[in-house]
Amino acid sequence: MILETISLDENTKIYKGKLGLFDKFNQKEYIDKIIYLKHLYPEYVSHPRTKFPGYQYTIFAQYDEIDFMYSEVKNWAKENLNIHLECMIKSWVYMSDKSNVYSGYHAHPKTQYEDRGIIKEFDSTFVTTYYLQMPNNLEGDDGYIYFKTKDEKEFGFLPKEDEIIIFPADLEHNVRLNKKSTIPRICIASNYMYFNYKDAKLNKTLF
Length: 207
Hints:
Distance between the termini: 46 Å
Number of strands: 12
CATH architecture: Sandwich
Number of domains: 1
CATH superfamily: q2cbj1_9rhob like domain
Structural class: alpha+beta
């Protein structure tokens, strides 16, 4: 995986390019798998949340396609960001169509996990957005992803299918709507949380 480096300012870089997933897996089959997961969340199918850009649901399935993406991203981070730590990854689907009426700036500096009512929060290192399917019938900046730096400058890009974008977790971003598209925009977003287990105090105790 070879990604282009784009400097938004002196301190902010993003990376974008082809993941290569379609060279190894079938795009239509992967879309079918992702849509199947959507039907495991009937509350979203019946009542899409209008304060978010489309349907959103966590990916719990161990698909070969997503394992491929994780491997490519982690290897890229080792080679290009010199990150050789262990990591946790949380991924979810953004699926939006022309009925979606909301899009706003947000960032992912923290990632939450919930287990038996206990919520644990971790610092995110970087975020990836992978474009499994892009909308059609685009006009103007429909379908663009925008980034906003700390000095309020905006940069917009129109993603391509099978493209991945990697950016800092605290970088604000939003997505333009798909007002006339006949197919949904399907994006797989992931938070990568790197940690050094050697820093932990692992002394054995009686409790």
